[in-house]
Specification:
Length: about 200
């Protein structure tokens, strides 16, 4: 199951859609061509959902995951070498097979592997790993790959957000009287003033 969590984390770090569109336009495809390719992809996913679900029930979830992962790897090789409409369409056809094959198969495998008692925890960790990958990629881009102007703008906004959080916590302080100005002091002063009072019985 650890490999499944790792795969979900790494998959969450991939911003596929915007990068794939830029890559296709650089290869000479128009936005109409990309829309046509995506339409074929989603139609195939819907059409292959039931047949591949029946195949997963016969082959077993683990074998189906292995087959879909191998096809997924091959599709990335096709995408890497693609330079025409037909090549990009073939890549999305392969991904349609992968998407329909993995749909529900990964969670079913986790349920069987973890058992009924631990299945809820395993599925929760699986979803959290994907979200953690997305947040990690977002933070990495903001801290290391954002242009200098955008980074400075983000750094200027951070203290403002911190002050708003401090004021909100100051309002929730039980020792603060409910009358008077809305923000009479900052959180640091409020914390220092309220610490001895909270310690009292």
């Amino acid at each position: 199951m650890a490999l499944m969590y790792l795969a979900a984390f790494l998959q969450g770090m991939v911003f596929y859609g915007p990068v794939a569109s830029l890559y296709r336009t650089q290869a000479g495809l128009s936005m109409g061509d990309i829309a046509l390719i995506e339409s074929v992809y989603y139609l195939l996913v819907v059409a292959l959902e039931l047949p591949l679900g029946a195949a997963a029930a016969r082959l077993g979830y683990k074998r189906m995951l292995a087959v879909c992962s191998a096809v997924f790897f091959l599709s990335k090789l096709v995408f890497w070498r693609a330079g025409s409409f037909g090549a990009f369409l073939a890549e999305r056809v392969m991904l349609a097979f992968v998407g329909a094959g993995l749909s529900g198969c990964d969670t079913a495998y986790l349920y069987v592997a973890a058992g009924p008692k631990r299945a809820q925890r395993a599925l929760g960790l699986y979803g959290a790993a994907g979200m953690a990958g997305l947040l990690a990629a977002t933070a990495a881009f903001t801290l290391f790959f954002l242009p200098a102007t955008g980074r400075r703008r983000w750094q200027r906004r951070l203290p403002t957000a911190w002050r708003l959080c401090a004021r909100w916590r100051c309002l929730r302080c039980p020792c603060r009287p409910r009358t008077g100005p809305r923000f009479p002091h900052r959180y640091a002063a409020c914390g220092a003033a309220c610490a001895p009072r909270r310690a009292m019985p």
